[in-house]
User: Fold this.
Amino acid sequence: MLRGTPRTWETPLTLENSMWRSRLTLLLCLPLALAAGCDEPKCKGTKCGGDSPDSGVVVPEPETVEADWAVTGPYANCHFKQGTTGTQCGELSSFDLSACQRTTLGSIGKEGVFTTHGRMELSDGGVRYFKQSHSLREDGGTETFNGWSTDSDNMYLTKYLSDDTWFVSRHTEGRFADGGVANVTVGYAGCSAQDSEHFTGCYAVCLNGQAYEKGTFKAARITPARGESEANGLTLVSETPILDQDHSDYFFGLPVDVYVTKNRAYVVSIEGTYQGWGGLTVIDVSDPANPRVTKRIPSEGGYWNGVWAKGDALYVASGNLGVVTFDITNPDNPVLTPVQVQENADAHTVFVEGNHLYAMGDPTRIYDISNPRAPRLIGRYEPPGAASYPGAYVHDAFVYQGRMYSYYWSYGMQISDVSRVDEQEPTHLGAYRYGIDSKGNPTLNSAHSHAGAVGTFGDRLIAFEGGEDWGSHLRVLDVTDPAHVKLITRYRLREEVSIHNMILDEARKRLYIAYYHEGVRVLDVANPAQPRELSYFNTFRSEDPMRGLGFYEGAIGIRVPKVPDVSAANAGLIYVVDTSRGLLILRETK
Assistant:
């Protein structure tokens, strides 16, 4: 069984141990050990013809922007018993399930990967929402629950799964630098099942026997939806796991992005608590059916989350250094260039358009790369109002015909003129915003803008935009007039699965989507008002190693080589990064 790299995963929790410091953050921020309160945008780190959300229906959307998911109040008719303390806090006996339809719970599978949407009850009477994931097994294999794995010696699960009970609790113990002890219990109790894949219930988080957090949740077991097979219209050419060089049974971080040039696939992976430190993996894909790993470069702290190339230069988006530039004159042996533009700032993603490199983070930085191996900083840019807007953070951007489309999380998609970026800073042109309250702040269930693509369709400019959250999906927008962006339609699958990245083949009018648990989706968008699914490949398999560690799993990165990177070897191929399986090369058969 593949695991995280064999470092000090099982050492006591101390502030001196840097790897466990991130785990300590999860223990101390809301919600405790769930990472819900830590799940902010700056954390390191999606058919036609049906009539229900699960059928992939294209739904016309009114001018009043709909949210990604509906606010319905508590998800279940149960509650945590107030006053429950001591060892029973967070255990089955601490939940009042008397009003539940518990006889329905026997239909839920005892194994599989579950995603959950939690509704946290705040002390001031308000609520907060979060999403999580779990992986349960009956064969004695590794299980995961709310960010922890049973590979940890100081974590264990209690499970009661029967015809009228679905209960799982996670127990962890850690020590702080001052000698204090943190005994944490996280308990989830099922209340009723809607079918064999969906159920609701209550949860609680207890610290040293005292309830720290409570609320309700809804959960879904992730299986191939809509009766789908593994693939339709796409075939698997090869699969290359991203593994540690010295320990072939261990991961080399959590793979997240790929760029293909010079018949090489450059895969970046981020640090994962159970998946190693991460870095850059170079894969020779000149023979797509037989890829060969030629180099691994550790990130040595921070995270490497995005990658792009131009000529003999490779640019890596770094969490604590900004842009890291490599010389790939020898494509199998990237070396740092003499000229670096590294700075103590986050670069979440990178993008190249012409002679300019855009690094999205805090904020967007723009570089002149007329000499690709010697980037020169031109300036920094943030659209008006973004600096003070709650949750505003640029995750990605795309430049098309002199306009930059920036995806600013809660601040929506921002459009700026960058046609004269060498001479003047970008000029803000317009935006597409989501649900906001009377004070102009994002509502609880509003969409989050994460990534997109833009192309010309007749006399219109069309943007395809997607979020990254519970219920996130694809929106199709008319951006011809950036001051008056119009929503055309949307494409969505299950709400319990998030969309991620996308690439548009403008000539063929095909949109390629990395859709996490839904795998790869290829849409015919020749008529942007009616996207039509052409093909798919379900990369997600619940039995793969380290599933269920977090909500964002499955197909995460995607690349379809374009000029000048397309070659005889990679024409017609799709390069996909899966968070567990690594690099998958797919061939289109439709």
About this structure: Residues 4-64 have pLDDT under 50 and may be disordered.
